[in-house]
Amino acid sequence: MGSSRCTIINCPELKNRNVACLTLDLEQDYGDLLEEPSYEGLEHIPELVSFFKEKDIPLTCFVQGSLFETHSAQIKQLSALDVEFELHSYSHPKPGKADPKVEVEKGREAYKRFLGREPIGYRSPLGVIGKQDYEVLATSGFKFDSSIFPSLRPGTFNNLRKPTKPFRVNSPGIIEFPFAVFSPLIRIPIALSYIKLLGKPYLYLLKTFNLPSLIVFDFHLHDLFQLGSSGKIPVEKSPLIYRTIFRRIYKNSKSGLAILDKLITMLRGKGYSFQKLTNIYEAVSK
Questions:
Q1: What local confidence, expressed as pLDDT, does residue 254 receive?
Q2: Which residues of the chain have pLDDT under 70?
Q3: Which residues pair with 20 in a beta bridge?
Q4: SS3 content of the chain, % helix, strand, coil (to 5)
Q5: What is the DSSP string of 108-147?
Q6: Which of these, 78, 38, 3, lies nearest to 222 by C-alpha position?
Q7: Which 3 state secondary structure label does DSSP give 101?
Q8: So what's the pLDDT on residue 285?
Q9: What is the full DSSP assignment across 251-282?
Q10: What's the rounded Cα separation, in Å, for the pair 267 and 122?
Q11: CA distance 271 to 266
């Protein structure tokens, strides 16, 4: 996205401050990887609630819209936390397999029926979003998005030329909060799945080096907990490299909660405070 199409946002309220936003994609197990949707991860929400209560930090939760209709009781459990709910499409389709307008509008309607208000934040599945999607979001009243990994995922996206800082999409004016990467030169995402994939060396680098002043951190329930549905991911015909990646991320014997705990402790040691993403939107949109 060239500079003529977006404007980097420098927010005085965030100057000389380190802020982290922990964001959960609340969705069906493993997104679009399973042939039939599974919802085993939602059974672990009480454990997640206990963890965040103990840590006393806020949570931004991007909810797959259909879950407001089918799993409302599990979503209500999260209300015990300092949490904000935003929208994560309606059905979490594979890229290019659904109408963006239908996903946004059906999700928005389900959100409004459940919460009695309009959502203002959005996250597109798999970090795939384009100009048409931003236009749909603006028409539907959304104010910000947090979908872009400013990095490379072969076969899915190449965002190496996109900003690593918050930016405004000049037309139609949506503010984008990219996921944090290690640095503008080393564009490895700071996300739980990447920490599980790369292990202790990456955690050491995160602890040792200067990190972005704003960290938008992403995780899923299937990153935190081992799910039996992981055995249904059809990886048998995938190249060896992908099978290895799936094993390290989704069948890692180490607890994702333990890794998240280490990350929170590390960020606090670096002087980071924790905010909800709407707090940051309100600051940068002034």
A1: 60
A2: 1-4, 237, 252-254
A3: 215, 274
A4: 40, 15, 45
A5: HHHHHHHHSS---EE--GGG---HHHHHHHHHTT--EE--
A6: 38
A7: helix
A8: 84
A9: S-SS-HHHHHHHHHHHHHHTT-EE--HHHHHH
A10: 25
A11: 9
